[in-house]
Each structure stands twice: as structure tokens, then as C-alpha cells.
Amino acid sequence: MIRFLILAILLNVGFPLKSGSGYVVVHALKERLVKDVHVLASDSLRGRKFPDIGREKAADYIAGQFAEAGLKGIKHGDEPFFQKIPAKRIDMGETKIYSGGGVYNSGANFSFAATKELDVRQSMPVKFVGYSTDNEIVGYTGKDTLVFFLAYDIIDASMRLEKLTDATGAKYFGFAIHNNKRSLRSSYIAGESLSLIFQERSLANYSYPDGVFGMGVDSEEKWLYDYLPATDNDIGVFLFGDRLFKSFFDEELEDVSGEAWRSKRKNELPQVSDKQLDFESSFRLIEIIKKDDNVIGYFEGTDLRDEVVIICGHYDHLGKRGNNIYYGADDNASGTAAVMELARLFREAKDDGMEFRRTIVFIAFGAEETGLNGSKFYVSNPVFPLENTVVVINMDMIGRSDPPEMVPGYVNVKPMLSLRRPLRRTFKSIDREMDNIEVNTMGLSFSDMRFYFGSDHYSFIKEGVPAVIVNTGMHDDYHKPTDTADKINYSNMTNIVKMVFAVAAKVANEPERYGLGRR
């Protein structure tokens, strides 16, 4: 076994490690970190959002740095460092309603679905029938009229729609959901329209298999299309949210619902002023699947090669919105740059004679910003068995410690619920040996809970794998275009990288202290 000691910090760029054959000096170079952050947070990478070309360039850059560092790929072929993640979206075309001088879009203010593809621009009269169905409207036909009705919930709406389709012969229908009863169920129903509309918008965005928070490709969430009745007629159906209903009918849904209910009890149609619906639609249902990427490489260990230490950080960010690029220099070009630099440090240590008993795995996760989907895909499809994973060290936002002059930089190392005590003590002991950095290893406070759920370590914690997040806290540029590379504290980043290297090397070489089964 190699006895690992930190002896000193040399020239603020490296420190010697004692190996079996002598001293090994490892250099964490600030210049390399500066370069990597500036590349990842550059204009050409456009905020690194899937499926943009900037995200692809970022993944290629990281894989190239892994290759230069001498990491092994996880598979053979042209893309040895990529774990492909299938992501699916539904292209529904576009449907718009023009009302009161405004433009309303499907997936925002209303939902639209049809039984066949459409390419239409049309204006048609609206017949409001309230809660009525076939019994109250016998003899009424509306082939060239949009029939608008009210329902108590989506199941009720589906049943009413089926009856109205048979009774009227209309091609287009609209409805709104309202429940007159003041109850908990009424509160649930009030949000049902919004939920269905939101689900349409969600399906139009890329989703991932088995999302960590329950929303993904395999989600059982339904949208309006799933409730269209089985019919031989070609129909199109609008679901209005409350805001659009008020704009279109010039009345609150609650008031109109009450009047419609009283009319139904009298077996009459409600009296509503004539309306005209002006809309256009290019409705279609086309499934599109693309591949996102986790970027993974590793150094194989010696006698304990089947056990792994994972060093990770996510590389995706929010992309470009209008003319604004969300650069994500701190979130999380900083953590990704650290992962690449740590790969180089382990390579240099190996070249200088150090061996590592456990396998060291380096992962740049994709799809973190969309709900930890990259790490969730990994734990569902692990390249290295989760039961053999000793610890996960996740670096997310490690670049914005902005201390006053002459005050050391800082870093938070938040031990998660499954993290065992020896590792926490190791972070503190290394902190005492290093100058110009202060490591906070206090337990999670209520305000820290965002860090518990908010980054890729959480996917591992859910599976019982010990994990820790390393970061330097929040700042005013979080998730804004102003999170730029010039604001990073690169000196402190360098110290953080050295600290993580020291911890990971100890874990890799001391199975007695950091052994599996001591969770």
C-alpha cells in the first residue's frame, strides 16, 4: 500500500506526494483552468444547451481533453468517451388564436389537438352550449361552426366531446374546465387545464428516459390528444385556459359556468353573445429522437480496479435566448474545467510513478439543467457498477469565491446523507495543510437544501451511493447572461482542484479507511 502524505505547497502551483519510489510533484496549472473555462464559456459554444451545436462542440472539446490526458474510453469506435442519452420530443406544429388584438399560442394559453394533420387558417362562428350535450341540442348541426362547451374535469370533457361529436357533426370544438363545488377537488380541477396545457409544452421540448424527478420519455403524464374520443370524424379540439376564456368571451369563467349550469337545469342552451374564432394551425405529430451525451473516461486501478472513485461535474447550461448567451462560466464551466484538470493531474502522477489501487472515473454530465437527466441516465445504465462505487465527488459552481483582499478563498464541501465520516475528516485535514483556502464541511442547513437536490450527486444519493458536492455558493449572476469567464476566481479554483486531487488520491489508495460496505 502507498502511504499518502501532503507535505507542502510549492510555488502555489503544486505539491509533492510520497509514492513508493520517492516524491512526486503534481502541478495544478491555473493557466489551463483559465483556458478551459474561456473555451466552454465562449460565444461559439452558445451556452452549451442541448440540442444546439454549441453543446456538441463542448462535448467534443471535453472528450479531446480526456484523450490528451490519456484516459481510457468506455467503449470502442469513433466516440469512445461518449455515453449516448436518447432524448425525445414531439413536433406538434404550431397553432395560434387571434383574439382581442392579441395572439395566443398553443402550449401556453391553450392546448390544441386534432385527429389528423392540419394546415389551415380559418375564421368561424362559435356556438356556446355550456354543459349541454345531445339531449338539449337535438336538431342542431354545426359543421361549419365551432361548438364550445364546459366540463367538470378532463374525463367529463372527453365524454361530452364524444356525445357532441355524434350530435352536431361539427369539425371543431372548444371547451374549458370548471367545477362549481367549493372543495379540495375544486382546487385540483382549477389546475387541471394548466397541467394539460403545460404537458403539451413539455412534450414539445426534449425529454429524457426515466427522469430523476419523474418526468421523462416514459412518463405517464397525458395531454389533450390522449383524451380525444374514438370517432370516424376528423375533428380539432381547443382547451382554453382561464385567461384566454376571459379574453375571448369577455367574462370570467366562473360567472359563465354558473349561468350555464342554471340553463342546463332548465334544459335550455345558455345565452352568450355571438363570437368568431380566428385561428391558424399546422398541427402534426412527429416523434423526433436525438442523442445527448455524458462524456466519460477513466484510469484503471491496480489490485482494486473493480472499485471506482467518480470525479464529476456537468457541462451543459441554458443556451442562447434571443440575443443573449447564457455563458455559464461558473455554472458549470468551472466544475467541468476542474474535471479535465484533475484528469491531467492523475496522468502526471502516474507518469511520475504513482499508482492508484482503485479506478478513477471522470464524468462530464450532460442534461443537468433539464433535471439531472445525464446523471440519472448513468445510474440507470452504469458503466461501472454502482455497488462498487466508493464515492462520488461532484463539482458544481466552484469559480465564484470572491473574498476581500488578503482573505483566503473558500469552498463548501457539503456532506450528503450517505457520506461517511472518514471522508469529511479527510477534507478537513487537507484543508489544514493547504494555505489560501478555507473548507466549510458543516452539515446541510435549510438554505443548503437546494444543493442537496440541485446537482448530479443527488442521482447517486437516491441509489445509496456516497456523494459530496463541492462548490463556492450562489451569486447574483446565477443563471444570467452575466455569468462570464472574467468573473471567475482562478487562483481559488486552482486550490480547490488540488484539494480534490488529494482527497480522491487518498480514497483510491486506502481501502481500509474508505472501504465499500462502510456506508
Topology of helices and strands:
Blueprint (H helix, E strand, L loop, with lengths): L13 E6 L2 E6 L2 H11 L12 H16 L3 E2 L8 E10 L3 E5 L2 E4 L4 E5 L5 E11 L15 E6 L2 H15 L3 E6 L6 H7 L1 H13 L31 E5 L1 H8 L3 H13 L9 E7 L4 E14 L4 E11 L4 E3 L2 E3 L2 H23 L6 E8 L7 H8 L8 E7 L13 E7 L5 H13 L3 E4 L8 H5 L3 H5 L5 E5 L18 H20 L10
Parallel strand pairs: 8-9, 9-10, 10-11, 14-17, 14-18, 18-21, 19-20
Antiparallel strand pairs: 1-2, 3-13, 4-13, 5-6, 5-12, 7-11, 8-12, 13-17, 15-16, 19-21
Helix pairs in contact: 1-8, 2-8, 8-13, 10-13
Principal-axis shape equals: elongated
Mean pLDDT: 85
The assigned structural class equals alpha/beta
CATH topology of the largest domain: Aminopeptidase
Overall tally of structural domains? 2
Straight-line N-to-C gap: 22 Å
Work out the number of β strands.
Answer: 21
Give the CATH level 1 class of the largest domain.
Answer: Alpha Beta
Provide the β-strand percentage band: 25-35%
The CATH architecture name of the largest domain reads 3-Layer(aba) Sandwich
Number of helices: 13
> CATH H-level name of the largest domain... which superfamily?
Zn peptidases
Low-confidence stretches: 1-15, 18-23, 182-190
> Whole-number radius of gyration?
29 Å
Q: Percentage of helical residues?
A: 25-40%
Largest sheet entry = 9 strands, mixed
